[in-house]
């Protein structure tokens, strides 16, 4: 008998799954045996999910988070859909077609241009954007996306230069 468990909590998945497929914006971005994924993720989104699981040995430390919000599925970003939130984004990620899911190791598949560098912890793979900056930028896009006259709870005090913005942008929902 087979069982497919769909969860947003990788901590749960690790307890019961043998193989894991990680999805982002409606596509599988990583697929592998669960121990391989937990030992060394081969996609930055998977890495972000794993880094954000609370751990008992990190008491008192700030929990890592993936900056920004999931994309609006009617306006998925060009290139790699994860690029507005990815810590390792490069120009190729924004301008080339979305990277296909490809084999990057023994029974390991990743849809990242730089999966091999991530898997080998290569110093060539540099962090290019900060989660706090992504969070801030996304919040501004969300404000710009809303129709004039609508309000978002908790945004009192934000100046008129962003509160009356036009439709557009792509901060996601
Ligand atoms: S292709 Fe680029 S933006 Fe997408 S996950 Fe890989 S490094 Fe990040």
Structural features, described:
This protein has 173 residues and is of the alpha+beta class. The protein has one domain (10-163): Rossmann fold (3-Layer(aba) Sandwich). It has helices at 10-16, 34-39, 44-51, 91-95, 115-119, 131-145, 160-163; strands at residues 19-24, 27-33, 102-105, 108-110. The protein has a four-stranded antiparallel beta sheet. The longest helix has 15 residues, at 131-145. The radius of gyration is 18 Å and the shape is globular. It starts with 9 loop residues before the first helix and ends in a 10-residue tail after the last helix. The structure holds iron/sulfur cluster. Iron/sulfur cluster is lined by residues 43-44, 80, 82-83, 86, 88-89, 93, 99, 112-114.
List keywords for this structure.
173 residues; binds iron/sulfur cluster; 4 strands; Rossmann fold; alpha+beta
Strand content: 5-15%
Can you tell me the number of structural domains? 1
Task: Tell me the CATH architecture.
Answer: 3-Layer(aba) Sandwich
Give me the CATH superfamily.
P-loop containing nucleotide triphosphate hydrolases
Summarize this, please?
With 173 residues, the protein is α+β, with helices and mostly antiparallel strands.
């Amino acid at each position: 008998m087979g069982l497919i468990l769909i969860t947003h909590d990788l901590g749960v998945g690790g307890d019961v799954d043998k193989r894991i497929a990680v999805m982002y914006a409606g596509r599988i971005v990583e697929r592998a045996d669960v121990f391989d994924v937990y030992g060394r993720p081969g996609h930055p989104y998977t890495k972000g999910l794993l880094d954000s699981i609370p751990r008992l040995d990190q008491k008192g430390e700030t929990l890592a988070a993936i900056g920004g919000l999931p994309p609006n599925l009617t306006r998925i970003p060009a290139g790699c859909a994860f690029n507005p939130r990815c810590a390792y984004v490069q120009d190729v990620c924004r301008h080339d077609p979305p990277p296909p899911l490809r084999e990057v190791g023994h029974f390991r598949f990743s849809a990242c241009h730089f999966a091999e560098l991530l898997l080998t912890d290569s110093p060539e793979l540099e962090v290019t954007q900060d989660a706090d900056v992504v969070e801030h930028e996304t919040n501004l896009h969300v404000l710009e996306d809303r129709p004039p006259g609508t309000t978002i709870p908790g945004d009192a005090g934000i100046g008129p230069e962003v509160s009356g913005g036009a439709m557009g942008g792509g901060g996601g929902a």
